[in-house]
Specification:
CATH superfamily: Cytochrome P450
Low-confidence stretches: none
CATH class: Mainly Alpha
CATH architecture: Orthogonal Bundle
Number of domains: 1
Strand order of the largest sheet: 1-2-8-5-3
Helix content: 40-55%
Strand content: 5-15%
Largest sheet: 5 strands, mixed
Radius of gyration: 21 Å
Mean pLDDT: 94
Order of helices and strands: HHEEHEHHHEHHHHHHHHEEEEHHEEEE
Number of strands: 12
Shape: globular
Oligomer: single chain
Protein backbone atom coordinates (compact mmCIF):
# COMPACT_ATOMS: atom_id res chain seq x y z
CA UNK A 1 0.00 0.00 0.00
CA UNK A 2 1.28 3.46 -0.90
CA UNK A 3 0.58 6.17 1.70
CA UNK A 4 -1.84 8.76 0.39
CA UNK A 5 0.64 11.48 1.37
CA UNK A 6 2.80 10.44 -1.59
CA UNK A 7 1.29 12.72 -4.25
CA UNK A 8 4.04 13.88 -6.64
CA UNK A 9 1.65 15.93 -8.78
CA UNK A 10 0.61 18.02 -5.77
CA UNK A 11 2.34 21.40 -5.26
CA UNK A 12 2.20 20.83 -1.51
CA UNK A 13 4.05 17.55 -1.84
CA UNK A 14 6.68 19.08 -4.12
CA UNK A 15 7.21 21.89 -1.60
CA UNK A 16 8.04 19.40 1.16
CA UNK A 17 8.06 15.70 0.23
CA UNK A 18 10.01 14.58 3.29
CA UNK A 19 7.08 13.72 5.63
CA UNK A 20 5.64 11.50 2.87
CA UNK A 21 9.02 9.80 2.45
CA UNK A 22 9.05 8.99 6.17
CA UNK A 23 5.63 7.35 5.74
CA UNK A 24 6.89 5.35 2.78
CA UNK A 25 9.91 4.08 4.72
CA UNK A 26 7.65 3.07 7.61
CA UNK A 27 5.26 1.26 5.27
CA UNK A 28 7.70 -0.98 3.42
CA UNK A 29 10.75 -1.46 1.23
CA UNK A 30 8.98 -1.76 -2.14
CA UNK A 31 5.60 -0.08 -2.65
CA UNK A 32 3.43 -0.19 -5.76
CA UNK A 33 2.38 3.24 -7.04
CA UNK A 34 -0.45 2.79 -9.52
CA UNK A 35 -0.51 6.32 -11.09
CA UNK A 36 2.98 5.85 -12.58
CA UNK A 37 2.91 2.01 -12.48
CA UNK A 38 6.21 1.86 -10.64
CA UNK A 39 7.63 0.22 -7.54
CA UNK A 40 8.77 2.93 -5.13
CA UNK A 41 12.02 2.16 -3.30
CA UNK A 42 12.42 4.51 -0.29
CA UNK A 43 15.23 3.00 1.85
CA UNK A 44 18.88 3.99 1.48
CA UNK A 45 20.25 0.43 1.58
CA UNK A 46 17.91 -0.72 -1.20
CA UNK A 47 18.43 2.38 -3.36
CA UNK A 48 22.21 2.07 -3.03
CA UNK A 49 22.17 -1.66 -3.82
CA UNK A 50 19.83 -1.38 -6.81
CA UNK A 51 21.90 1.43 -8.35
CA UNK A 52 24.70 -1.14 -8.57
CA UNK A 53 22.60 -4.19 -9.47
CA UNK A 54 23.14 -5.23 -13.09
CA UNK A 55 19.77 -7.05 -13.11
CA UNK A 56 18.37 -3.55 -13.58
CA UNK A 57 19.06 -1.09 -16.36
CA UNK A 58 18.33 2.40 -17.56
CA UNK A 59 17.14 0.75 -20.77
CA UNK A 60 16.00 -2.71 -21.76
CA UNK A 61 16.53 -2.36 -25.52
CA UNK A 62 20.02 -3.92 -25.37
CA UNK A 63 18.28 -7.19 -24.43
CA UNK A 64 14.64 -7.01 -25.47
CA UNK A 65 12.32 -5.39 -27.96
CA UNK A 66 9.49 -3.27 -26.59
CA UNK A 67 7.08 -6.12 -27.28
CA UNK A 68 9.26 -8.77 -25.63
CA UNK A 69 9.46 -6.60 -22.54
CA UNK A 70 5.72 -6.06 -22.39
CA UNK A 71 5.97 -2.39 -23.32
CA UNK A 72 4.71 -0.32 -26.23
CA UNK A 73 6.96 1.69 -28.49
CA UNK A 74 7.01 5.46 -27.89
CA UNK A 75 4.74 7.47 -30.19
CA UNK A 76 6.44 8.11 -33.56
CA UNK A 77 6.10 11.85 -33.02
CA UNK A 78 8.38 11.62 -29.98
CA UNK A 79 11.20 9.98 -31.95
CA UNK A 80 13.58 13.00 -32.06
CA UNK A 81 13.61 13.15 -28.26
CA UNK A 82 14.23 9.42 -27.90
CA UNK A 83 16.97 9.39 -30.54
CA UNK A 84 18.75 12.13 -28.61
CA UNK A 85 18.08 10.69 -25.15
CA UNK A 86 18.65 7.00 -25.93
CA UNK A 87 22.14 7.54 -27.36
CA UNK A 88 23.49 9.30 -24.27
CA UNK A 89 25.42 7.71 -21.42
CA UNK A 90 22.57 8.12 -18.95
CA UNK A 91 20.26 5.76 -20.85
CA UNK A 92 22.70 3.21 -22.24
CA UNK A 93 23.85 -0.15 -20.91
CA UNK A 94 26.63 -2.54 -21.91
CA UNK A 95 28.21 -2.94 -24.37
CA UNK A 96 27.66 0.66 -25.56
CA UNK A 97 27.78 2.38 -22.18
CA UNK A 98 31.31 1.32 -21.12
CA UNK A 99 32.66 1.99 -24.63
CA UNK A 100 31.24 5.53 -24.75
CA UNK A 101 32.15 6.31 -21.14
CA UNK A 102 35.77 5.28 -21.78
CA UNK A 103 35.94 7.50 -24.85
CA UNK A 104 34.24 10.45 -23.16
CA UNK A 105 36.53 10.07 -20.15
CA UNK A 106 39.53 10.65 -22.43
CA UNK A 107 38.21 14.15 -23.09
CA UNK A 108 36.59 14.71 -19.68
CA UNK A 109 39.52 14.07 -17.36
CA UNK A 110 40.36 15.23 -13.81
CA UNK A 111 42.95 17.45 -15.50
CA UNK A 112 40.19 19.16 -17.47
CA UNK A 113 38.38 19.98 -14.22
CA UNK A 114 41.59 21.30 -12.62
CA UNK A 115 42.26 23.51 -15.64
CA UNK A 116 38.71 24.89 -15.43
CA UNK A 117 38.89 25.73 -11.72
CA UNK A 118 40.41 29.23 -12.13
CA UNK A 119 37.74 30.06 -14.73
CA UNK A 120 35.00 28.81 -12.37
CA UNK A 121 36.37 30.83 -9.44
CA UNK A 122 36.72 33.99 -11.52
CA UNK A 123 33.23 33.68 -12.97
CA UNK A 124 31.68 33.00 -9.55
CA UNK A 125 33.50 36.04 -8.10
CA UNK A 126 32.27 38.24 -10.96
CA UNK A 127 28.65 37.11 -10.68
CA UNK A 128 28.60 37.54 -6.90
CA UNK A 129 30.26 40.97 -7.17
CA UNK A 130 27.45 42.03 -9.51
CA UNK A 131 24.82 40.89 -7.00
CA UNK A 132 26.63 42.79 -4.22
CA UNK A 133 26.87 45.94 -6.36
CA UNK A 134 23.12 45.78 -7.02
CA UNK A 135 22.33 45.27 -3.34
CA UNK A 136 20.83 41.84 -4.03
CA UNK A 137 18.63 40.22 -6.63
CA UNK A 138 17.38 36.79 -7.66
CA UNK A 139 20.04 34.29 -6.63
CA UNK A 140 18.75 31.69 -9.09
CA UNK A 141 18.71 33.92 -12.17
CA UNK A 142 21.87 35.87 -11.34
CA UNK A 143 24.17 33.14 -10.00
CA UNK A 144 22.77 29.61 -9.82
CA UNK A 145 21.82 29.42 -13.51
CA UNK A 146 24.50 31.42 -15.36
CA UNK A 147 27.50 29.86 -13.59
CA UNK A 148 27.17 26.17 -14.56
CA UNK A 149 25.73 26.93 -18.00
CA UNK A 150 28.71 29.16 -18.78
CA UNK A 151 31.16 26.55 -17.48
CA UNK A 152 29.72 23.70 -19.56
CA UNK A 153 29.50 25.99 -22.60
CA UNK A 154 33.14 26.95 -22.06
CA UNK A 155 34.10 23.27 -21.88
CA UNK A 156 32.21 22.43 -25.05
CA UNK A 157 33.50 25.48 -26.90
CA UNK A 158 30.08 27.00 -27.57
CA UNK A 159 30.43 30.64 -28.67
CA UNK A 160 29.32 33.18 -26.08
CA UNK A 161 26.75 34.71 -28.43
CA UNK A 162 24.94 31.35 -28.64
CA UNK A 163 24.89 30.43 -24.97
CA UNK A 164 21.50 32.00 -24.31
CA UNK A 165 20.00 29.14 -26.33
CA UNK A 166 21.20 26.39 -24.01
CA UNK A 167 19.13 26.82 -20.86
CA UNK A 168 15.71 26.91 -22.63
CA UNK A 169 16.61 23.84 -24.71
CA UNK A 170 17.74 22.01 -21.60
CA UNK A 171 14.64 22.93 -19.59
CA UNK A 172 12.32 21.71 -22.36
CA UNK A 173 14.19 18.40 -22.75
CA UNK A 174 14.32 17.78 -19.00
CA UNK A 175 10.55 18.15 -18.77
CA UNK A 176 10.35 14.59 -20.13
CA UNK A 177 12.01 13.22 -16.98
CA UNK A 178 9.04 14.09 -14.78
CA UNK A 179 6.45 11.42 -13.98
CA UNK A 180 3.82 11.01 -16.73
CA UNK A 181 4.79 14.06 -18.84
CA UNK A 182 1.98 15.60 -20.85
CA UNK A 183 1.78 15.68 -24.64
CA UNK A 184 2.47 19.42 -24.53
CA UNK A 185 5.67 18.71 -22.57
CA UNK A 186 6.62 16.08 -25.13
CA UNK A 187 6.10 18.48 -28.03
CA UNK A 188 8.38 21.06 -26.40
CA UNK A 189 11.00 18.37 -25.78
CA UNK A 190 10.85 17.20 -29.40
CA UNK A 191 11.28 20.74 -30.72
CA UNK A 192 14.21 21.38 -28.38
CA UNK A 193 15.78 18.04 -29.34
CA UNK A 194 15.60 18.86 -33.04
CA UNK A 195 16.95 22.39 -32.62
CA UNK A 196 19.72 21.46 -30.19
CA UNK A 197 20.80 18.49 -32.34
CA UNK A 198 20.93 20.61 -35.50
CA UNK A 199 22.98 23.26 -33.71
CA UNK A 200 25.49 20.72 -32.39
CA UNK A 201 25.72 18.93 -35.74
CA UNK A 202 26.84 22.18 -37.33
CA UNK A 203 29.25 22.92 -34.48
CA UNK A 204 30.80 19.43 -34.74
CA UNK A 205 31.25 19.84 -38.49
CA UNK A 206 33.15 23.07 -37.86
CA UNK A 207 35.39 21.41 -35.25
CA UNK A 208 36.21 18.57 -37.63
CA UNK A 209 37.64 21.16 -40.02
CA UNK A 210 39.26 23.34 -37.35
CA UNK A 211 39.85 21.48 -34.05
CA UNK A 212 40.30 23.52 -30.89
CA UNK A 213 41.10 22.92 -27.24
CA UNK A 214 37.46 22.37 -26.30
CA UNK A 215 35.60 19.22 -25.27
CA UNK A 216 33.84 18.78 -28.62
CA UNK A 217 37.23 18.65 -30.35
CA UNK A 218 38.32 16.16 -27.70
CA UNK A 219 35.30 13.98 -28.32
CA UNK A 220 36.01 13.99 -32.06
CA UNK A 221 39.59 12.92 -31.38
CA UNK A 222 38.72 10.29 -28.72
CA UNK A 223 39.82 6.90 -30.03
CA UNK A 224 40.29 3.45 -28.52
CA UNK A 225 40.64 -0.02 -30.05
CA UNK A 226 39.54 1.21 -33.45
CA UNK A 227 36.42 2.84 -31.99
CA UNK A 228 35.30 6.44 -32.25
CA UNK A 229 32.14 8.16 -31.15
CA UNK A 230 29.49 8.38 -33.86
CA UNK A 231 28.05 11.80 -34.63
CA UNK A 232 24.81 10.92 -32.81
CA UNK A 233 26.76 9.69 -29.78
CA UNK A 234 28.69 12.97 -29.70
CA UNK A 235 25.50 15.03 -29.98
CA UNK A 236 23.76 13.02 -27.25
CA UNK A 237 26.85 13.23 -25.03
CA UNK A 238 27.08 17.01 -25.38
CA UNK A 239 23.38 17.43 -24.54
CA UNK A 240 23.70 15.14 -21.54
CA UNK A 241 26.76 17.02 -20.28
CA UNK A 242 24.85 20.28 -20.52
CA UNK A 243 21.61 18.98 -18.97
CA UNK A 244 23.16 16.92 -16.18
CA UNK A 245 26.08 19.31 -15.81
CA UNK A 246 23.99 22.28 -14.84
CA UNK A 247 20.62 21.05 -13.54
CA UNK A 248 22.20 19.54 -10.42
CA UNK A 249 24.31 22.64 -9.72
CA UNK A 250 21.48 25.11 -10.35
CA UNK A 251 19.06 23.30 -8.07
CA UNK A 252 21.59 22.51 -5.36
CA UNK A 253 22.53 26.20 -5.19
CA UNK A 254 18.92 27.36 -4.81
CA UNK A 255 17.86 24.53 -2.50
CA UNK A 256 21.05 24.91 -0.48
CA UNK A 257 20.75 28.63 0.18
CA UNK A 258 17.10 28.28 1.11
CA UNK A 259 18.10 25.56 3.60
CA UNK A 260 20.82 27.84 5.01
CA UNK A 261 18.41 30.76 5.42
CA UNK A 262 15.99 28.44 7.24
CA UNK A 263 18.79 27.15 9.50
CA UNK A 264 20.51 30.40 10.54
CA UNK A 265 22.69 28.80 13.22
CA UNK A 266 24.27 26.57 10.57
CA UNK A 267 24.75 29.53 8.23
CA UNK A 268 26.33 31.60 11.00
CA UNK A 269 28.78 28.79 11.82
CA UNK A 270 29.81 28.48 8.16
CA UNK A 271 30.20 32.23 7.81
CA UNK A 272 32.46 32.25 10.86
CA UNK A 273 34.79 29.66 9.32
CA UNK A 274 34.37 29.08 5.56
CA UNK A 275 37.69 27.23 5.23
CA UNK A 276 37.90 25.06 2.08
CA UNK A 277 37.68 21.73 3.93
CA UNK A 278 34.65 22.91 5.94
CA UNK A 279 33.02 24.29 2.82
CA UNK A 280 33.57 20.95 1.09
CA UNK A 281 31.88 19.09 3.96
CA UNK A 282 29.03 21.62 3.92
CA UNK A 283 28.45 21.11 0.18
CA UNK A 284 28.07 17.35 0.69
CA UNK A 285 25.52 17.95 3.46
CA UNK A 286 23.60 20.40 1.27
CA UNK A 287 23.52 17.78 -1.50
CA UNK A 288 22.14 15.26 0.99
CA UNK A 289 19.69 17.48 2.81
CA UNK A 290 17.69 18.64 -0.21
CA UNK A 291 18.88 16.73 -3.25
CA UNK A 292 18.26 18.22 -6.71
CA UNK A 293 17.16 14.83 -8.11
CA UNK A 294 14.47 13.01 -6.15
CA UNK A 295 13.70 10.00 -8.30
CA UNK A 296 15.78 7.85 -10.63
CA UNK A 297 14.17 5.09 -12.68
CA UNK A 298 15.44 1.62 -13.53
CA UNK A 299 13.92 -1.21 -15.58
CA UNK A 300 13.91 -4.68 -14.03
CA UNK A 301 15.67 -6.93 -16.57
CA UNK A 302 15.52 -10.09 -14.44
CA UNK A 303 13.27 -10.88 -11.48
CA UNK A 304 14.45 -9.36 -8.20
CA UNK A 305 13.29 -9.33 -4.59
CA UNK A 306 13.27 -6.28 -2.34
CA UNK A 307 12.46 -7.37 1.18
CA UNK A 308 9.63 -9.86 0.84
CA UNK A 309 8.39 -8.34 -2.42
CA UNK A 310 9.09 -10.07 -5.73
CA UNK A 311 9.44 -7.55 -8.56
CA UNK A 312 9.17 -9.30 -11.93
CA UNK A 313 11.05 -8.64 -15.13
CA UNK A 314 9.38 -5.90 -17.13
CA UNK A 315 8.65 -3.76 -14.07
CA UNK A 316 10.00 -0.29 -13.42
CA UNK A 317 11.41 0.80 -10.08
CA UNK A 318 11.56 4.39 -8.87
CA UNK A 319 14.61 4.86 -6.66
CA UNK A 320 13.71 7.68 -4.27
CA UNK A 321 16.95 9.60 -3.73
CA UNK A 322 15.26 12.21 -1.55
CA UNK A 323 13.95 9.52 0.79
CA UNK A 324 17.22 7.57 0.85
CA UNK A 325 19.10 10.72 1.85
CA UNK A 326 16.82 11.16 4.90
CA UNK A 327 16.90 7.52 6.02
CA UNK A 328 17.55 7.42 9.80
CA UNK A 329 19.10 3.97 9.44
CA UNK A 330 22.08 5.69 7.76
CA UNK A 331 21.95 9.35 8.80
CA UNK A 332 21.53 10.23 12.50
CA UNK A 333 18.93 12.98 12.95
CA UNK A 334 18.36 13.00 9.18
CA UNK A 335 15.94 15.94 9.04
CA UNK A 336 18.54 18.21 10.63
CA UNK A 337 20.89 20.22 8.41
CA UNK A 338 24.33 19.54 9.91
CA UNK A 339 27.11 21.18 7.91
CA UNK A 340 29.74 19.30 9.95
CA UNK A 341 28.30 15.85 9.07
CA UNK A 342 31.42 13.90 8.14
CA UNK A 343 30.02 10.43 7.40
CA UNK A 344 27.74 11.31 4.51
CA UNK A 345 27.09 8.52 1.96
CA UNK A 346 24.30 10.39 0.14
CA UNK A 347 23.12 9.12 -3.23
CA UNK A 348 22.51 12.52 -4.84
CA UNK A 349 25.10 11.89 -7.56
CA UNK A 350 24.12 8.26 -8.15
CA UNK A 351 26.24 5.13 -7.87
CA UNK A 352 27.48 2.24 -9.97
CA UNK A 353 28.21 2.56 -13.68
CA UNK A 354 25.90 5.58 -13.99
CA UNK A 355 27.61 7.57 -11.23
CA UNK A 356 27.70 11.21 -12.30
CA UNK A 357 30.64 11.76 -14.66
CA UNK A 358 30.62 15.47 -13.87
CA UNK A 359 30.57 15.11 -10.06
CA UNK A 360 34.06 16.62 -9.60
CA UNK A 361 33.11 19.67 -11.68
CA UNK A 362 29.79 20.09 -9.83
CA UNK A 363 31.65 20.13 -6.52
CA UNK A 364 34.09 22.76 -7.82
CA UNK A 365 31.21 24.97 -9.00
CA UNK A 366 29.27 24.65 -5.75
CA UNK A 367 32.31 25.36 -3.58
CA UNK A 368 33.14 28.41 -5.72
CA UNK A 369 29.63 29.94 -5.66
CA UNK A 370 28.94 29.25 -1.97
CA UNK A 371 32.44 30.42 -1.02
CA UNK A 372 32.17 33.68 -2.96
CA UNK A 373 28.79 34.50 -1.43
CA UNK A 374 30.07 33.79 2.08
CA UNK A 375 33.07 36.04 1.51
CA UNK A 376 31.58 38.88 -0.52
CA UNK A 377 28.07 38.95 0.98
CA UNK A 378 28.43 37.94 4.64
CA UNK A 379 25.05 39.50 5.53
CA UNK A 380 23.13 37.90 2.66
CA UNK A 381 19.48 37.42 3.61
CA UNK A 382 16.22 36.21 2.13
CA UNK A 383 13.78 39.06 1.40
CA UNK A 384 10.80 37.45 -0.29
CA UNK A 385 8.97 34.21 -0.84
CA UNK A 386 10.97 31.75 -2.99
CA UNK A 387 9.17 30.43 -6.06
CA UNK A 388 9.43 26.71 -6.70
CA UNK A 389 9.66 25.18 -10.17
CA UNK A 390 6.98 22.85 -11.38
CA UNK A 391 7.90 19.21 -11.07
CA UNK A 392 9.12 16.84 -8.43
CA UNK A 393 11.72 14.57 -10.07
CA UNK A 394 14.13 17.42 -10.79
CA UNK A 395 13.33 19.64 -7.83
CA UNK A 396 14.48 23.21 -7.39
CA UNK A 397 13.61 26.87 -7.17
CA UNK A 398 12.55 29.21 -9.95
CA UNK A 399 13.61 32.24 -7.91
CA UNK A 400 15.24 33.12 -4.58
CA UNK A 401 15.12 36.88 -3.78
CA UNK A 402 17.97 38.12 -1.58
CA UNK A 403 19.56 41.30 -0.26
CA UNK A 404 23.17 41.81 0.81
Amino acid sequence: MTPSAFAPSSPGFAADPYPAYAELRATGRALWFEPSRQWLIPHHADVSALLRDRRLGRTYLHRFTHEEFGRTSPPPGHEPFHTLNDNGLLDLEAPRHPRIRRLVSKAFTPGTVRELQPYVEELAATLVARIVANGGGDLVAELAEPLPVAVIAQMLGIPENDRYLLRPWSADICGMYELNPSEATARKAVTASLEFSAYLRELIAGRRKEPGEDLISGLIAAYEDGERLSEQEMISTCVLLLNAGHEATVNTTGNGWLALFRNPEQLDALRADPAPEKLSTAVEEILRYDTPLHLFERWVLDDIEVGEVRIPRGSEVALLFGSANRDPAVFPDPDRLDLTRADNPHVSLGAGIHYCLGAPLARVELAASFGQLLRQAPALRLVGEPQRKDGFVIRGLASLPVEV
